[in-house]
């Protein structure tokens, strides 16, 4: 009955006749008794997801399911669905494939929701309304659960994670912070610029703990099968994200060059934001990212670009088998041989956004050497919400920073701790921070009171350099292990610095 009601609601919403609708139900359409046929059905899950226009999750009529559905904003928020590995797999695969095929991500839950309203004029009281049926869209983008998962992963990555997690929880309790349950309640933790950036580049975002292979299973041996499918989808999705971003910027650059010719004037170059935010990039994907960016940089500079643009074209065409139903994607592949001399867009990339991915410190050497340094106009590097980067991030990044023109470096929510603050202060005596750097974002990490002393020393030593024209600001707000005494010391330093002038 629930599925029938939901289908009627969807057909009415999208004005479809029943003859135009085909329904695929996992337990009914994948053989459950014949093992060989079952394996073939499982192997076809990606193809079924790619052919689906809508995914529907019926919600059971029981109090806990209704309560979770009423507040759900993401498929993973649903009770008895979001925690199950096979259910996660269908939502994850559909979300990723829809973005790859450039289709809207239409995920709906259908069930009964409960609402609480405030009644009365003088003596207000809350009243729970009778449950009602609702066809509710659920986003495959950011959820509160994803933000909680980032913090959990960062806690595990921090030095002495058990002690850190306890203190972080105590700090949250002392501030009377409650568990985040909706996207709107996340907003105090995210600045407005970050929110706008995330909205502009949202996609099929899943935190590491929301991935299918991290879900619960009745048959534990199924985990390997799910992990293999997950990795296949993840690689395809991240590869597509890189290619699509290259093609997107190349298209804008081409339009700019055409306008320049038509107007017969020198137009100011377009400043590009190369964003792979939330595209599930892992360390093993970094060589692929480097291949495309490094090849384009060499071509832009008049070099041979390795084996030439044919390498990029062959790499693009490898993705065709997964895009048979995407004419726009194939058209993009055909039309954007972006290694050619007419595409100098990489010279105009000012922001590189790799935030909210699955990168750790082992990829940083290659990232800095093969991507950051070759981009001549890069001023902003966003690595925030990569909790696996951990405490050694400055050991890997600082040797390269002096050779860049970075103005902003974001490492918030990256598992940075007291050792990181020590490394930052010690290494900046050997490797100078670039004179252009004005903002180092270390918010929402795990530094302690003693870390504040090193942050003050680093800031003071850097700002006293005669070659600096602008003051460096190191932002450590949201480091919950810093006590009021630590914040008082920081405020005193900042007040004295302001009284003494911009560079003390």
Quick description:
Helix content is 45%, strand content 9%.
What is the topological layout?
Layout: H1 2-13, H2 26-29, H3 35-43, H4 45-51, E1 55-58, H5 63-71, H6 85-100, E2 107-113, E3 116-119, E4 125-128, E5 132-138, H7 144-157, H8 161-174, H9 192-200, H10 222-263, E6 272-275, H11 286-300, H12 309-317, H13 327-335, E7 349-353, H14 364-372, E8 380-382, H15 393-401, E9 408-410, H16 418-427, E10 439-441, H17 449-463, E11 473-475, H18 484-499
Parallel strand pairs: 1-2, 6-7, 7-8, 8-9, 9-10, 10-11
Antiparallel strand pairs: 2-5, 3-4
Structure description:
The protein has 504 residues and is of the alpha/beta class. The protein is built from 18 helices and eleven strands. The strands form three sheets. It has a six-stranded parallel sheet with strand order 6-7-8-9-10-11. Helix 11 runs parallel beside helix 14, helix 16 packs parallel to helix 17 and helix 17 packs parallel to helix 18. It is globular and about 75 Å long.
Structural class assignment: alpha/beta
**Considering DSSP H and I runs of 4 or more, what fraction of the residues is helical?**
40-55%
Number of strands: 11
How is the largest sheet built, in terms of strand order? 6-7-8-9-10-11
Main beta-sheet annotation: 6 strands, parallel
Proportion of β residues?
A: 5-15%
């Amino acid at each position: 009955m629930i599925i029938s009601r939901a289908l009627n609601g969807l057909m009415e919403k999208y004005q479809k006749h029943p003859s135009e609708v085909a329904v695929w139900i996992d337990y009914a359409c994948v053989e459950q008794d014949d093992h060989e046929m079952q394996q073939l059905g499982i192997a076809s899950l990606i193809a079924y997801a790619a052919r689906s226009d809508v995914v529907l999750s019926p919600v059971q009529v029981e109090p806990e399911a209704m309560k979770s559905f009423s507040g759900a904003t993401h498929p993973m928020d649903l009770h008895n669905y979001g925690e199950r590995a096979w259910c996660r797999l269908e939502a994850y695969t559909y979300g990723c494939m829809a973005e790859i095929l450039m289709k809207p991500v239409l995920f709906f839950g259908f069930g009964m929701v409960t609402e609480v309203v405030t009644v009365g004029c003088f003596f207000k009281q809350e009243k729970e309304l009778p449950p009602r049926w609702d066809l509710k869209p659920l986003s495959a983008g950011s959820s509160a659960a994803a933000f909680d998962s980032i913090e959990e992963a960062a806690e595990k990555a921090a030095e002495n994670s058990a002690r850190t997690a306890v203190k972080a929880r105590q700090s949250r309790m002392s501030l009377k912070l409650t568990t985040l349950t909706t996207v709107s309640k996340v907003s105090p933790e995210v600045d407005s610029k970050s929110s706008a950036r995330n909205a502009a580049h949202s996609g099929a975002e899943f935190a590491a703990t929301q991935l299918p292979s991290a879900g619960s299973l009745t048959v534990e041996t199924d985990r390997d099968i799910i992990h293999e499918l997950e990795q296949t989808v993840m690689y395809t999705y991240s590869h597509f994200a890189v290619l699509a971003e290259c093609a997107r910027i190349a298209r804008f650059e081409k339009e700019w060059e055409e306008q320049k010719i038509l107007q017969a004037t020198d137009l100011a170059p377009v400043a590009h934001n190369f964003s792979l935010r939330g595209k599930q990039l892992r360390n093993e994907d970094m060589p692929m990212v480097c291949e495309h960016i490094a090849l384009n940089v060499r071509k832009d500079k008049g070099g041979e670009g390795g084996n030439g643009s044919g390498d990029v074209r062959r790499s693009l065409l490898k993705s065709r088998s997964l895009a048979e139903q995407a004419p726009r994607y194939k058209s993009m592949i055909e039309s954007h041989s972006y290694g050619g001399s007419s595409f100098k867009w990489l010279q105009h990339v000012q922001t590189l956004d790799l935030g909210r991915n699955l990168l750790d410190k082992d990829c940083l050497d290659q990232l800095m050497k093969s991507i950051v340094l070759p981009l001549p106009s890069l001023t902003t590097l966003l690595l925030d919400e990569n909790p696996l980067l951990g405490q050694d991030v400055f050991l890997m990044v600082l040797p390269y920073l002096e050779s860049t023109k970075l103005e902003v470096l974001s490492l918030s929510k990256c598992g940075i701790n007291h050792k990181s603050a020590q490394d930052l202060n010690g290494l900046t005596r050997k490797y100078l921070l670039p004179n252009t750097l004005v903002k180092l974002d270390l918010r929402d990490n795990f530094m302690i009171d003693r870390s504040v002393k090193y942050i003050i020393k680093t800031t003071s030593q850097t700002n006293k350099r005669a070659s600096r024209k602008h003051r460096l600001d190191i932002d450590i707000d949201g480091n919950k292990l810093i006590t009021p005494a630590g914040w008082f010391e920081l405020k005193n330093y900042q007040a004295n610095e302001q009284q003494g002038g911009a560079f003390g």
